What we know:
2 domains, Immunoglobulin-like, 4 helices, 36% strand, alpha+beta, 9 strands
Amino acid sequence: MYKLYTDKQETFECDLFLEGADLKQSSARLIVESKDLTLMFKGTIDDKGNCKVPIKKLKGLMGENTTGDIKLEVIAEDTLIEPWQSDFVVETAKKVTVEVKSQKQKPQIKESTKPQVKIKNIKNDSNPINEIVEFFKENNITIQKVLKGKKRIVSILENYSKKIGYKGGTKKFIREVIQKLPKV
């Protein structure tokens, strides 16, 4: 799934291999289609077939978690070609999560998408438990929400654990995920 951002400009890049047409006479564009909106971004193709399409920040155009289809269209002389297509999701690149702990209060989670704070995105790709916990945190899923939708969430976690082949077994995977979830 291709990621687009509300708060970050991206450049879509690819190499094109075009036969039967001149690259200098060709143009490229990305079409981004959601349920409610279609956007088009014009790109360039150099004489070596390097295609670059700048994608502007989508804040105000598409909200976070918007999904749809994205496709590359190449117009080679008088022919329209669609050499690439994918699903997309819109995300916010910069997020800050703060956990405040004190003796008198329960832990609290507050989330902000204000871009004033620069943070390094630290992600442990080799730990599926941290990935799931991070996903739950990003979607405001707490232990209380897990308990309310216990059957659905446990089923999802079991399927994911089996899919990735978690070595400790599905019960251990679910237990460790739940232990790391925010309480409130």
